[in-house]
Design brief:
256 residues; alpha/beta; 40% helix; binds 2-acetamido-2-deoxy-beta-D-glucopyranose; Endo-1,31,4-beta-D-glucanase-like
Length: 256
């Protein structure tokens, strides 16, 4: 009986996934509200994980994947970006309702309707306004998977200075055409939703639009490799570390 239910659940997840089942692979093993070197405070109406340099005028907003801002590795990556000298803020864009891999009643379709990228974009505006009130003068956004689409939308606005997309999901060609700030996109060689051919097409568009951009395809890794990796697998760790460093280098170049 249990197996049947698990199979049913799995087929629902696979059928309903945003663009490809990869979105759900390798979920965090647990949520950890107290993980990381930083602290959770309110920012622009959202509970937000703060880390890095508190009084920096250069801020990075991290927008998580569907598993939210309490995933342990996500917090570690936020701390790492912060230690490069930025104020890093990771708001809870899911309002306490991330995808919970252990919830047997999880309804993918209902969740997706609740948490659209458009909603994320709207929620980001008061966060940006609150950062500016704190005296922040330049803002970069890094969006991961689900958050990558929100980051792409923000990159088409005047709200931010630059964006880094880590294996973003469901970004449209039109959204790439709208981008107006310097942008970096890190993709996996093995990502059905964002294959290398599509990334190359994005590069052609950004190049034609004379934008400062950086696109890199990481060999031998899958969608999600920068925040949902096996921490005891040397290759997985090395690939993720390289992506984190590329992210830091991009923000250092664009914001400092
Ligand atoms: C939708 O959002 C509401 C309010 O945030 C929440 O109470 C509800 O559980 C959510 N439903 C799903 C399926 O995520
Ligand atoms: C993680 O990687 C280690 C070392 O390669 C391996 O032994 C282990 O089975 C992996 N764990 C998972 C859950 O894949």
């Amino acid at each position: 009986m249990k197996t049947v239910i698990q199979l049913l659940l799995l087929s629902t997840l696979l059928a309903g996934c945003m663009s490809h089942s990869d979105c759900f692979k390798n979920p965090p093993s647990f949520f950890c509200p107290t993980c990381g070197e930083g602290t959770v405070k309110e920012l622009g109406g959202l509970k937000t994980y703060f880390t890095g340099r508190p009084y920096s005028k250069l801020a990075v907003i991290m927008i998580s994947d569907i598993y939210g801002y309490e995933a342990p590795i996500f917090r570690k990556v936020a701390d790492k970006v912060g230690s490069a000298g930025f104020l890093v803020v990771a708001p809870d864009f899911f309002h306490g309702n991330p995808v919970d891999p252990n919830d047997p009643t999880f309804d993918r379709v209902a969740w997706g309707k609740n948490h659209t990228a458009d909603k994320g974009y709207d929620d980001a505006k008061p966060v940006i306004a609150a950062l500016k009130r704190k005296g922040v003068s330049a803002i970069g956004v890094t969006g991961i998977c689900w958050g990558g689409k929100v980051a792409a939308k923000l990159a088409g606005s005047d709200y931010i200075q630059t964006a880094v997309l880590l294996h973003p999901s469901r970004v449209t060609i039109d959204e790439i055409k709208e981008v107006k700030v310097p942008i970096a996109v890190l993709g996996a060689e093995l990502d059905k939703g964002l294959p290398p051919e599509l990334l190359k097409q994005w590069g052609d568009i950004l190049s034609a639009n004379k934008l400062d951009y950086f696109i890199k395809i990481f060999p031998g890794v899958r969608h999600g490799w920068t925040v949902r990796y096996n921490e005891t697998d040397t290759f997985a760790v090395k690939s993720a570390d390289e992506a984190h460093q590329d992210t830091i280098n991009w923000f250092t170049k664009q914001l400092k």
